[in-house]
Amino acid sequence: GDSVTQMEGPVTLSEEAFLTINCTYTATGYPSLFWYVQYPGEGLQLLLKATKADDKGSNKGFEATYRKETTSFHLEKGSVQVSDSAVYFCALSDRGGGFKTIFGAGTRLFVKA
Amino acid sequence: EPEVTQTPSHQVTQMGQEVILRCVPISNHLYFYWYRQILGQKVEFLVSFYNNEISEKSEIFDDQFSVERPDGSNFTLKIRSTKLEDSAMYFCASSETSRGNQPQHFGDGTRLSIL
Fold it and tell me: Which tens digits make up the pLDDT trace of A12-59?
């Protein structure tokens, strides 16, 4: 079945450091890919999405490119802030999976001032 | 921006009791979902609902669980006889269509604590 694998955390960075969170997926069809963010004590917010190969999703300085050849959707940000501290979930939605959202395990990011 | 709202934000219930978690999806959305996140673990799909019936359910969604859309706005998850292992954050989500390129919009969740 469909699945998402993302790097384990926690990831601890200093402010203004470069962030990469790796995400790879397995899907029977041609999925749409998402990154969701969960701030402490809050729900899941859509951060960005990409629906076809080579699409780049971007929002709030975060970017991720849909790489079909490597089945990856790595999240990047050039300069993180303390306010970016949260848990980041890579996810997919696929016709073969009945369009439910399948999440990775989440990666907790701590950004130090 | 329209939001999915969930109530209550925190529910504490004795083991064996029934609990109903409530959700108000975004008004023009037609597809509804419940997910569960046990503390520190991944978000897991429970059930999807469309046109007043269940579209798909996971292995977690056993006979203790049921969903209902009692009126034009609410979408509820009922757990008939709660167990300790039902303690989790429960997220409701909705989407306008079932096409995979339309992201689901999530509520802030209900934290369910079973004592």
Answer: 999 999 999 999 999 888 899 999 999 987 888 999 999 999 999 999
B69-76 long-range Cβ contacts below 8 angstroms, 24+ apart? B69/B32, B73/B24, B73/B25, B73/B27, B74/B22, B74/B23, B74/B24, B75/B22, B75/B23, B75/B24, B75/B25, B75/B32, B75/B49, B76/B20, B76/B21, B76/B22, B76/B23
Residues 23-52 of B with CB under 8 A from A: 31, 33, 35, 41-45, 48
* All residues at 6 or more sequence positions from A42 whose CB lies less than 8 Å from its CB, including other chains: B108
What is the DSSP code (8-state) at residue A15?
T
Which residues in chain A are contacts of B33 at CB distance < 8 A? 100-101
Report the gap between the CA of B60 and the closest CA in chain A (Å). 14
C-alpha A7/C-alpha A20 separation (Å) is 10
CA distance to partner chain A, nearest, from residue B15 (Å): 24
Tokens coding B106: 């999530």
The strand pair at B19-24 and B5-7 is best described as antiparallel
What is the distance between the alpha carbons of residues A60 and A73, in angstroms, rounded to a whole number? Answer: 17
Instruction: Check if the beta carbon of residue A61 is closer than 8 Å to that of residue A83.
Output: no
Helix (H, G, I), strand (E, B) or coil at A82: helix
Q: What is the pLDDT of residues B26-77, one digit of tens each?
A: 988 989 999 999 988 889 999 999 888 998 999 999 999 999 998 878 999 9
Calculate the CA A51 to chain-centre distance: 14
Number of residues assigned to chain B = 115
